[in-house]
Predict the structure.
Amino acid sequence: MILLETKGLTASYGQFRALFGVDVSLSAGETVAIIGANSAGKSTLLRSITGVLRNDPSMVLHRGEAIGALPPEIVMQRGIAMVPEGRKLFPSLSVEENLKIGGQVRRAIGPWNLEAIYDLFPILREKRNVPGTALSGGQQQMVAIGRALMSNPEVLLCDEISLGLAPVVIRDIYAAMPRIKASGAAIIVVEQDIGRALSVADRVYCMMEGRVTLSAPAATVSRDAIHTAYFGDAA
Amino acid sequence: MIWIDTLVQGILLGGLYALFAAGLSLVFGIMRLVNLAHGDMIIFAAFAILLITGSLGLNPFLAALIAAPLMFALGWALQRFVLNHVLGKDILPPLLVTFGLSVALQNGMLEAFSADSQRIPAGPLESASVNLGIVTVGWMPLLTFATAIAVIVGLNQIFYRTALGRAFRATSDDPVTASLMGIAPKGIFAIATGLAMVVVTIAALYLGMRANFDPSIGPARLIYAFEAVIIGGLGSLWGTLAGGIIIGVAQTMGAAINPEWQILSGHIAFLIVLLIRPRGLFPRAVD
């Protein structure tokens, strides 16, 4: 069953057109990777899905219902949680408060609660009373992921979770992905790190200059196809 | 001895100024909105309490208890239907709207209640005093100060111990990310302004019992509140109490030297603090 899809999604920042008719879909239990270079439109796509950028209602569908014009808080309450680019922890809140606020408004029945998050990322249990922004980048990313999981979302959107982190830290964070997948959430990971993205994804979309240039199963997609989709024919 | 007495009276007066300022500080801390009609709201709430005491024959504290939820509703509606529409990156539109509101409130109150001075009758409490050994203080200033502490403790409990407070702080940090957590920032702003109006009602109760008021004195109360907030550091509630006390002490000390200097001394103390600590005594890390 298709949980989430965009149909002919366009988006602009003022005069600048960022997306030109993007079609992507996400089925229940599936993990989809969206890869592409800087300014390919990946983050804009997530901002449009979450309602941070408003669109024509029917350009974004959740369980077949048009949600493109809904504000972010309503989209979230429908079960679509976001790990925003740059972590965006709340500086005034401790680690534990940052986690709690993720499940404060919507808390569906599911496997995720404070204890489960602390089991997933044990370091956070030790640092539960520290201000969220006092942590290292990788630990902040763990909080941001945990915060999104606290609502037991149906759909989890991860925007550039490896950005600015050391490879060993990225490995630790991606090590948690199988457990998150097994908990039942459908996931979209937006990544520049192609290898990481393919390692967790069932399907992959590649974007370039606001368009989808490739859609393929992650297991069988060839390096050449990705290369062409990522950089264009000229490369 | 006279100086200890003056100091104590000043500290207690600071409690009243902290009450004036706490609502302003709360709203500024959460949504970076300066409500120029804050002083007039206090006067409006004082008239509301006066009306309730007069018409229902209640004592002022019970009247304030009735006025508080009404003021909450008023604040909520004001934020929801007016101020939310002008909040944004530009700080000028909300300033203009609340300035307009201030003028409208003053004239509306003049029309409804006339320019006559009024006072909320507090009975024997008005003149009762207690001997603390070295100084004798009035029950009313003591009660005002204790209430200011209670209000600030209460607001801090809400801020740091409740889910609502967590939402206040998160929204203050970053409204867009808060909305990704399912929190509607504009709803939070409306609750915050409602809460500020409850604090305004408490401030109005003591203002009205301690001194005469008329529709025109709101802006002067706004100035004291504003100075207390700035001295304390924007958004810090305990800082606001400290700010109120500094102005209160400066005023009573000034008045002890020469009665004409009372108001002036408060403003000078404010300027001195600004010169030494432009961000106030206890600025929040993020603002």
In short: Chain B touches chain A through 19 residues (CB under 8 Å). Strands of chain B lie at 129-131, 136-138.
